[in-house]
Amino acid sequence: MDMNEIKEIFFQECEEQLAELESGLLKMNDGDRDPETVNAVFRAVHSIKGGAGAFGLDDLVAFAHVFETTLDCVRSNKLEPNQDVLKVMLKSADVLADLTNAARDGGSVDESRSRGLVKELEALANGELPSPSASSEAPAPKAAAKAAPAAPAPTPKPTDDSGFQPVPFSFDDFGGEGDAGGMPAYEVIFKPRYELYSKGNDATLLLRDLSRLGEMTIYCNTDELPGLEELDPEGAYFFWNVTIKTDKGEDAIRTVFEFAEWDCELTVKPVEEARADATSNDELPMVPVPFDLSILDETGATEEVSASDARAEETAAAVAAAETASNVTQMAAAAARVEKKESAAAAAAAASAAAQNNAAGAGQTIRVDLDRVDRLINLVGELVINQAMLSQSVIENDTTGTSSINMGLEELQQLTREIQDSVMAIRAQPVKPVFQRMSRIVREIADMTGKSIRLITEGENTEVDKTVIDKLAEPLTHMIRNAVDHGIETPEKRAAAGKNTEGTVRLTAKHRSGRILIELADDGAGINREKVRQKAIDNDLIPADANLSDEEIDNLIFLPGFSTADKISDISGRGVGMDVVKRSIQALGGRINITSKPGHGSVFTMSLPLTLAVLDGMVVTVAGQTLVVPLTAIVETLQPEAAAIHSFGANHRLISIRNSFCPLVDVGRILNFRATQANPVEGVALLVESEGGGQRALMVDAIQGQRQVVIKSLEANYTHVPGIAAATILGDGRVALILDVDAVVGASRGQSLKAEMSLAAVG
Amino acid sequence: MKKKVLTVDDSRTIRNMLLVTLNNAGFETIQAEDGIEGLEVLEESNPDVIVTDINMPRLDGFGFIEGVRRNEKYRAIPILVLTTESDAEKKNRARQAGATGWIVKPFDPAKLIDAIERVTA
């Protein structure tokens, strides 16, 4: 793994953290004051900042830092997260997302916006927090980030495994003038306290680090070592006198003891001073002992053996028993391991129990490359086809129908179906990320239009195939824009109508009979039917005297080239209308509907398949070929009677259905399966709805049945064929083409499909 | 023998950076995503040194360090705190909980390795 891959992971993680951040802030906006929510929000920003720092993304770090500082005030209850505060924070979350995107894809962010928010955040942090820490830190985040602890010992790292290189000692130098080699000398007195060892620090290692600074002489003082009977095996009794010659300075020496400075007594003095002190202390019966660090090298363990001449025997006993203070800790730990194994085990059990309690809420997940899942889904598709083929050949060959093969086959079928469902469930994801993106869009448009809007989302954990989710964002964004821009009235108008000045947009997802239903409801003015009707007449979409029901008028907004906005606004008037939304929903195999109540708002209902990997289709025969027509496109099927067929021009025919005329399209002719049109009376008509809501009757020879088919891409396996959306493999092993209803209907309008269409006669 | 490092951090980015840095420097690396998992992994992995983040869900770095120090078997293990907090208060709390030393994020690989070598034999 290299840095670029890690960076990629970082951006993935940012997306998750941003989602976490936003949902946390929204919860807080709804009055959630759970400290864990605030903590999660804080952690999200904190994580982004941490990663961004590692990649030198200074803009992101700077903004995240200010944001984090303000969040910290909330976390420590110095700042009350009221609606105003949260408004700023939600906007900051948006800017943070922008900065992340800019860092990933290049591009720029609205700097004035982010600068403005930095000021607002700082004001929030300062308003309630008069202490200078936040205020002085906030404007200079880079400086703060750089205020790392002093550099560690700058000596080159040793290369041998023990991490130690012996240092030459010269006894002659001890007590010398301190000018040998022209380097200043320092006397260091290092006296560890008990706490030093209990925090995992080790006097040996500190002295070893010190030795890297220069030539040094070291003496261990054992005067405070008590007799064995009073000895606390974990006590700290030794201290060390070190004389070191180094040009690195006193600060470098202190830096060595950086981690230990609270847990030891440390004196560092230039040697002249020290010598003056030493002279006055001459009477003290301190007998320095040379202490050779190089023994470490031999043993490879952290052992220090030292003894004072005066108390050699006693000390030797003590040392033999206890070796060094740090080693003692380990030994004691080893002893305790035996004694306290039970309590340790109990503690571990308690910890894991606690973990399980927590994990119950979090749920265990693994990350899998999407390609692998896709491959699995493909293979299961093959399995389904294979199983169907096997069933068919067994049925054809087994005339008795009672054999155990049939039983086994049924079980296999059951299992295959379950495997397929389970595999599809792997790729299923909650719609939450898409819904969360919508809340930002609502905020932004509300800001731009000066409207006050509340977005309520429900069922955001409803799962649907990832391929559907990916394609859902765009139409949904457009619809939300429309709802906020055109649906919800201005606060003044709402007040005048006696409504709450704050508009509500409700986004709901739920499962309904094997499909996902997404509803977008606003409590705005609803569809102005008179205006819509007039507009449709003006744009020649309907005749002036058309007699339309309310529902039909509402659905006019899905017609291409329709827009009711008086003026083209920045927000939704970008040249795409609801017809584009409808088309993209239909491309997903879905349907969209609107119901509206004047004065009370509109509800858009989208029904989508849970997956794009399988499709409910009607299997039909056309000129000897088997085709599959997506069930979602079919409104009804009917058996045409001779009396209902009317000729129209040379090649066109119409069918009358309940007093209205509908163009009749011979699928076999359009796909060049046959040269002349078939007799409609001998076939079946499928009434389909295509883009723009236009209805056509598709003529096929016969209906074989209805079944779920596994979609196989034609583009990936063959090449694009006009009029055909994809292919599938049927139980008899033959390839069946899935009809692209929109393309066929389009072709019937005059743009005939190309000659290569005849290639469609596969299988 | 390779030294074994246990890292505890909730950020996937940082976990990966630690993994790459430590593996490149010849350490064996074991990773956990939060304090609770850290304590679980500790038992099986028996590391030579621990590097932990402070801000984590479920059990934060302070709680994790205290947990390690309460364990007789591991109370002398060196623990380095890896955190973006450079202010004295956080450092002090980590120290009181029993941290051996600290590394400030964004960490410089050389400094991380150096700090680990400073606290391990």
UniProtKB/TrEMBL annotation, chain A:
It catalyses: ATP + protein L-histidine = ADP + protein N-phospho-L-histidine. Pfam families: CheW, H-kinase_dim, HATPase_c, Hpt. Residues 130-150 have a biased composition (Low complexity). GO terms for biological process: chemotaxis. The keyword Kinase applies. GO terms for molecular function: ATP binding; phosphorelay sensor kinase activity. Residues 127-170 are annotated as: Disordered. Keywords: ATP-binding, Chemotaxis, Kinase, Nucleotide-binding, Phosphoprotein, Transferase, Two-component regulatory system. SUPFAM superfamilies: ATPase domain of HSP90 chaperone/DNA topoisomerase II/histidine kinase, CheW-like, Histidine-containing phosphotransfer domain, HPT domain, Homodimeric domain of signal transducing histidine kinase. One of its GO terms (cellular component) is cytoplasm. CDD domains: CheA_reg, HATPase_CheA-like, HPT. The modification Phosphohistidine is found at residue 46. Residues 410-612 form the Histidine kinase domain. Its EC number is 2.7.13.3. Residues 1-103 form the HPt domain. InterPro entries: Bact_Chemotaxis_CheA, CheA-like_dim, CheA-like_homodim_sf, CheW-like_dom_sf, CheW-lke_dom, HATPase_C_sf, HATPase_dom, His_kinase_dom. Residues 614-750 form the CheW-like domain. Involved in the transmission of sensory signals from the chemoreceptors to the flagellar motors. CheA is autophosphorylated; it can transfer its phosphate group to either CheB or CheY. This is Chemotaxis protein CheA. The lineage of its organism: Bacteria, Pseudomonadati, Pseudomonadota, Alphaproteobacteria, Hyphomicrobiales.
TrEMBL record, chain B:
Residues 4-120 form the Response regulatory domain. The keyword ATP-binding does not apply. It comes from the Bacteria. The modification 4-aspartylphosphate is found at residue 53. Keywords: Phosphoprotein. This is Two-component system chemotaxis response regulator CheY. GO terms for biological process: phosphorelay signal transduction system. It comes from Rhizobium lentis. Pfam families: Response_reg. SUPFAM superfamilies: CheY-like (SSF52172).
